[in-house]
């Protein structure tokens, strides 16, 4: 089986962590050093910008049914959204079109080269409601309490500082805001992705619940990925129980 993931060239991400002394309002943020593992999961290396063409390969929609995931985001005109770990913008551009000129997309990545490639693609399609944002490995540099929907596709498992990132993400959400998380299914051996770049539902639940999130929606019909929506644990949105992965695989006839 091929493991389709251009991961052999890890990104150079030896960036400084956020200078805490320069920030007045980050009380409560976990003091976290660069990790090799988190709650029993071994962390992956960020994908280098050298592999960016793979992210916009023509067959991606057929393989992952990205169009269906996109519909599930239920984006509306005027929303303020974020594509965190945006890469060269496979998701950012359609998000920008969906929220329209009254809306805004924060496009965050830790590699300037990815943001440059995104900028070139946005210019080609004359899209102007994208705010490219150079994040840090422990801080996406987002405004507080402003985001309606924050999307992370195939990126969360790469965070070297997952607790710090989740703390900042939680703080960026409006009370009704949600995180849409797409990760390749670890439970399915037929998903042709390297094991470190997959996550199980149980592990996702463990990490998100430990960091102040609750599951509020899920979509279990994608060919390769989990799509799970989380809200702040103090959100008015109602918590749901995830359908176990073995039941999902059975219903997909895998
Ligand atoms: C596998 S790519 C996915 C890109 C995009 N989401 C997509 O689906 O096409 C992961 C991206 O996440 C970025 N990334 C990794 N850690 C990050 C962090 N802490 N903050 C922001 N971006 C990060 C990497 O630089 C890389 O561009």
From TrEMBL:
Region annotated Disordered, chain positions: 1-39
GO biological process: methylation
Pfam families: Methyltransf_31 (PF13847)
Ranges annotated as biased composition (Polar residues): 14-24
CDD domains per record: AdoMet_MTases (cd02440)
EC number annotated for this UniProt entry: 2.1.-.-
One Gene Ontology molecular-function label: methyltransferase activity
The keyword Protein biosynthesis belongs to this UniProt entry's keyword annotation: no
Protein name in the entry: Class I SAM-dependent methyltransferase
InterPro entries: Methyltranfer_dom (IPR025714), SAM-dependent_MTases_sf (IPR029063)
Alphabetically ordered keywords of this record: Methyltransferase, Transferase
Biological source species: Roseiconus lacunae
Top-rank taxon, per record: Bacteria
Methyltransferase is among the record's keywords: yes
All copies of domain Methyltransferase, residue ranges: 76-190
């Amino acid at each position: 089986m091929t493991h389709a993931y251009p991961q052999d060239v890890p990104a150079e991400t030896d960036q400084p962590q956020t200078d805490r002394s320069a920030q007045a309002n980050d009380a409560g943020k976990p003091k976290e050093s660069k990790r090799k593992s988190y709650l029993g999961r071994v962390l992956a290396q960020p994908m280098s910008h050298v592999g960016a063409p793979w992210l916009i390969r023509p067959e991606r929609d057929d393989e992952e049914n990205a169009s269906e995931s996109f519909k599930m985001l239920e984006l509306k005109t005027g929303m303020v959204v974020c594509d965190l770990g945006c890469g060269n913008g496979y998701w950012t551009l359609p998000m920008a079109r969906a929220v329209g000129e009254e809306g805004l997309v924060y496009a965050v990545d830790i590699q300037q080269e990815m943001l440059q490639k995104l900028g070139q693609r946005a210019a080609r399609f004359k899209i102007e409601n994208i705010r490219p944002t150079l994040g840090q490995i422990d801080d996406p540099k987002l405004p507080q309490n402003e985001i309606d929907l924050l999307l992370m596709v195939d990126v969360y498992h790469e965070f070297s500082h997952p607790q710090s990132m989740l703390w900042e993400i939680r703080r960026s959400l409006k009370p009704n805001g949600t995180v849409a998380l797409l990760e390749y299914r670890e439970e399915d051996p037929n998903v042709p992705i390297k094991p470190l770049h997959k996550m199980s539902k149980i592990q996702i639940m463990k990490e998100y619940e430990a960091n102040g999130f609750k599951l509020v929606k899920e979509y279990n019909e994608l060919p390769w990925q989990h799509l799970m929506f989380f809200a702040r644990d103090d959100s008015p949105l109602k918590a749901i129980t995830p359908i176990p992965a073995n039941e999902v695989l059975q219903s997909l006839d895998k």
